[in-house]
Structures are given as structure tokens and as C-alpha cells.
Amino acid sequence: MVITTLADGITRGVEAVTDTITAPFSDPVIRLGVTGLSRAGKTVFITSLVANLLDRGRMPQFRAAASGAIQTAYLQPQPDDTVPRFAFEDHLGALTDKSPHWPQGTQRISELRLSLKVQPSGLLGSFQGPRTVHVDIVDYPGEWLLDLSLLDTDFATWSAQVLARMDARPKAAEFAQALAECDPSAEFEEPQAQALAAAFTIHLNAAREAGFSDCTPGRFLLPGDLEGSPVLSFSPLPLVDRPARKSLWREFERRFESYKRNVVRPFFRDHFSKIDRQIVLVDVLGAIHSGPRAVEDMRRAMADILGAFRPGRNAFLSRLFQGRRIDKVLFAATKADHLHHEQHPQLTAITQSLLRDAKDRAEFSGATTQAMSIAALRTTVEDTRNHNGAALGVVRGQLLGTDKQAAFYPGALPTDPAHLLGPARTGAENWLDADYEIMSFAPAPLTLKPGDGPPHIRLDKVAQFLLGDKL
Questions:
Q1: What's the pLDDT tens digit per position in 246-263?
Q2: Which InterPro entries does the record cross-reference, listed alphabetically (predicted)?
Q3: DSSP letter at 444?
Q4: What is the pLDDT of residues 116-137, one digit of tens each?
Q5: CATH 3.40.50.300, applies to 2-140+271-379+444-470
Q6: CA dist 436 to 110, 340, 421, Å?
Q7: Residue 57: which residues within 8 A CB-CB, separation 6 or more?
Q8: What is the pTM of this model?
């Protein structure tokens, strides 16, 4: 453990020195991390962002594009040969097909390099030729980012936290029954471990489907080639006083530490620590629809996420971030096209309030953060309907899985975010004064003019915040 930790620190230090020496002689690179909590739309976001940077007709708020400073943009092989390429062409084909459909969501880490040829601005710009800026987009599941909180936690503490919050979540009774039928202090048996892990995984998946955000360990939801391995075959257990060396409790404690060492740390060491800018996509509307407890869980999850961007809280991360740090983090509330634009300020205010609470809890400082409401791909059009003599702003689109068009009004979001966050903090089971609905829309058929990317809401502002100062 000590040797591995020392090696991590040396490696990051060497990389930092190398970057400093070679930077003046190489093309600048911006490594943009894209992640999101459950069903936030990472794949669609990356696909639409890249398409709109290649064809910039819909990017008026992205100054480098609007001014013509970006002369051309093109894709080329990413520098990391061991990381799968983000399947941009396949995903764009799914969205622009005559019968468009949503592409498959993020299941693993992937990467894409977009290169921009940019004419420098300013007094010396006219005397300089264009330069190339590479944007390396790193896509990874948000469940992996939430695993950061495990690095500062031992098995007993994690177990107590999970078991304490479990009653408010679905499939808790089934897992509680499995726990009741075992003795954590008894001798370890593999079939029992597999059964407990399976019941716990079912509970985590059900919690995610119900709109809860913090569903760690993340690889239980996206196991990949680790499925069935001992490192994913454990669960929280009630505390045992002086457990025996070969007991179930001791073995689960060992596997928990192995998960942190062999799964969580390598991801942060090999990928996360190299990111310069980060966007976290959040389905705030989905959490509101799921109820106050889901909103409170999202608030806490955002605090844990912000902890990842302040490495001083964790000695392991402090060593990884030697010589570099993430200096901009954007939290984007997605699916803004499910609301009439009159309600976009309320959605942004709620997201900002969630973020502000997260910053306070995490004692966060350093990086510039911002909240925004966006739609990476606009699937609806706005309309007005008469309701009880008053004009009601609605959105209209094709319902997912049908050929029917529907007008939709999700409910009035409060202008004061405290009206939502207050019941969430106090543990209310539902909203007392309002009902919030959510509807799934299919991507609309697109007819794009030359030079235009897919329609969106505020994707140009996203690009300006994350990339503008580097161009």
C-alpha cells in the first residue's frame, strides 16, 4: 500500500514537470470530463456538443465560433490508445435517422478528440497564424465519480450510512430480509456472500430507477467484466464487536478495501486526475418528480461530487493532483426542453441552490463553478394553451415509444427554491402543495441546414463557459 501510494505521487509529479516543459512546444490540450447522475443524458450531450462544434451555425453565444475565430474543426484519434473511442458517428446517426431514436447510454469510460484550428485574437493576433487546440472529451459514468466518497470511509462507517438511509428506498425490505437470515460474525461462506451481494445490487438498481442519486458502489450498477468477482461480492453489514478473522464481516471488510484499492483508485489515478474542465449533468426534473427524498439525496450527492474537485480533503487525491487541478466545473440541469422557457429561470435557480448547499457542505474552494439549465437536443416545441381562462405555457412533442404527439405541462416550479429544498431536508414523503409530472419524449426528426448542428438549448453557453477562455 505504501509503495503503491509513493509510486502514484512520483508518477503524477513527473507528469506535471513533463507537461510544464513541453507545453510551449506543443499544441494546447483541454481535457474535458463529462459525467452525470442517473439518466442525465451524457451520450446525447457529447454527441450534440461535438456536432455543434463541427457545424457551428447554432452557437451564437460561443464567442470563438460567432466571431469566426474557429476556422475549422475536425475529429482525429485520441491520444489514449487503451481507452475506447466514443462512438460519435453511431450516436449521431441514431439521432438524425429518418426514424430517430435515443442512443445507448454510457456503460464505461470512452474518449474523443476534437481539434479546433483557431485564429488568435488581440493586438498580436493579426501577426500570428492560426493555432490548433485539441479538446479531449472523456466520458465516464457518474456512478464512478460518486465512489470518491468511499476513499475516506471505512467499511463499518459505510455500512452504517447505507443501512441508515435504506428504509426510504425501494427493495429495502428484500435486502433487510437477506441480512436478517445471516450472522455477520459467523464463518464466511461464498454462496451466502453472493446471495447478499445480489440482493444489495437489486436494491441499488431499484433505488436508481426511483430517482435516487447516491447509489454506491458504482460498479455494482455497471459491473462490466468484474461481474461475479469477489471485488463486487459484498454488501453493508451491521456492526460486529470484535469479529473473528474468518468471519463474514471480516471478509466483506477486506473486499470493501479491495474495491477501493483495485477499482476506485485506478480510475482516479489514470483518468480523473488528468481532467482540466468538468461538466456534471443532473436530471433535476426527474428528482423533483420522484419526490423530496430524491431531491435531498441529489443535494448530498452533489456535495460528494464537489469533494472530488478539492483534493486537499484527501491525501490520495492531493498526491494525484500535483501540478494541475480542475479549474472549472459546470453543473447542468438537463431536459430544459421539457419546460416552457418561462420556467427555465426557476429550474436554474433550483440547481444553483442545490449547488450552493453542496459547496457549503464540501467546504469547496478553488475552481469556478456555475449552474445552468440546458437541453443538448431539443425534442419539443413550445405552445400556449388556455386553462381556466389563463394562458398556460406548455411544450409539445412525440411521446417515447409511440407515434402520438402530446402537449405537456409538468407543473409550476416555485420561484423560491426553498419551497422545494425545505421539504426535502425535513424528510417529507411528497410535495404537499403541488404535483410534478415528467414525460419521456422521443427525438424529433431533424432537417438540418448546411452548417447547422442539432437544435439545443444553451449548448453554446456551455461551450463558452468550459472552453471560451482557452480559445
A1: 999 999 999 999 999 999
A2: YcjX-like
A3: P
A4: 999 987 665 666 789 999 999 9
A5: yes
A6: 35, 14, 14
A7: 449, 451, 452, 453
A8: 0.86
